[in-house]
Every structure is written in C-alpha cells, then in structure tokens.
Amino acid sequence: MTPAAGSRTGAPSPAAAVPAIDLRGVAKHYPGSVGKAVHALGPLDLQITSGSFVAVVGPSGCGKSTLLRLVAGLEMPDDGTMSRYGTPLDAPSHEVGIVFQEHVLFPWNTVLENVLLPADVLALPKAAARERALRLLEMTGLAAFADHRPQMLSGGMRQRAALCRALLADPRLLLLDEPFGALDALTREELSLELSSLWQDLGRTALLITHDIEEAILLSDRVLVMSPRPGRIRADIAVDLPRPRNADTPRLPRFQELKQVVRDIIFDRPRT
Fold this sequence. Notes:
Distance between the termini: 43 Å
CATH class of the largest domain: Alpha Beta
Strand order of the largest sheet: 6-7-8-3-9-10
Helix content: 25-40%
Shape: globular
Low-confidence stretches: 1-12
Structural class: alpha/beta
Order of helices and strands: EEEHEEEHHHHEHEHEEH
C-alpha cells in the first residue's frame, strides 16, 4: 500500500499529548426486567493515546459493546466524564468512523455508492469524496468492484467496503465492533492483516472490540481485558511486538506468551 496523508512516519504531533479518548469514572446502567437496574459497565478509567490501536477482549456480556457505544457518543454514561481529543464527548461526531459486525451495505447501491453515503450525510465536497472513495477502494483491493452490487461480493469484500465507508470522511478515530466476527477463520486473518497495514498507512486512532484473543494481539498496541459484568478493566497489557506484522507474527514465542497471559486473565487462572 502507498502511504497516505497522515502516515505514521515522522515525529509525533504535539496534539498526540492530548488523549484521543479520556474516560474518568464512567459507569452505565440499563433498566432490568423486574424494574431493577442492570449495572452493565464500570466505573472505569480509560485513556487512549492518539494514533494508537487498542483492543478490548472479555467474556460475553461484559460491556465491551457498551464501551464502544459510549466512546462513539451513541450513548451517555450514568456516571463519570468523557472527552474526545480534549473536548467533552457528548454526541456522535464526524471525527469518528464505525465498522460493525454486519456490513449494512444497501443492496440497491453499488459498492462505490455505498462508500460515498457519508458524503451526502456530512455534505462533503463531491469531487474530493469520490476521489478519496476510489483511493480507499484501491487500497483495499476493491477498485475493480466499484460498480458491483454488494450481493455480488464475498463476505470479506463487503466488510472491506464497510471499512472504506467508515474511512471516507477521514475520521480521527476508528471504532471496530467485531468487524470480522461473522467471517471464516482464513478470511478473518487476511482482513486483520489488511486492517493493520491500512491503520499504519493512515495513522489514525483505533479501538477494536473482539472475542478473538489472537486478533486482538495481532492488531493492537494494547489489549484491555474486561471483567464479567459490570465490566471493568482487569488488565491493560502492552503488546510489544514489532511492526509491521504479518502472517508469521502469531508464530513468535512472544505472541504465544501474550496470548496465554490474556487467556489466563479471562479465565481467572493463576500465573505460575
């Protein structure tokens, strides 16, 4: 891939000193079936450095997706404070791109038209948006499929298109809610490596929610391990593996060591 504007080369920006995400004492409750509130998340503190890739893993129902919706501004906490790049985080923002497990592409639109949808919503200049959309499709290997309908693509190709759509407005923060969870293992590994390369080229901040420990380690700088509900951060593990990463990275002894550390924490196994 050809490095894009915002590449991770060169000295860090002074803005990097301001956290991309800063959560302080954040907690979330939901109404229960018998009127008693369900304590879903927190309280927790979380700071994410600008330009970093953070993955969140944990058991089902631990509040991972709730955390992502809070960071996206789609929900507000019941307690605590949140900021995004130094300003209050109290609503969705065009600075945030989101990729969900389901691609949510409109079947009556072409791939290019689907990728361009945010341009209409955000009133982006049409010519520049089209140029960026075509460039993103080229970077993700979809240039030859720009005029195809989504139903003509494989599952992995649809998720690539969804990723391009999320990146169209050049968001500073990319949120990924198990984007490859419905794919087969081989396609999932292929797209994880492509995402890692794309993230390095674009130099954006990323937060990934996943059940897959290997995916979390392969992609991230940090792996946050969540506790069962109410979800709290049990461990914050630095992933000290060299970049760029490739298909051989999971074979490294350090990768396997990190994988075992994360598994032991999730399953509450004592470390020897």
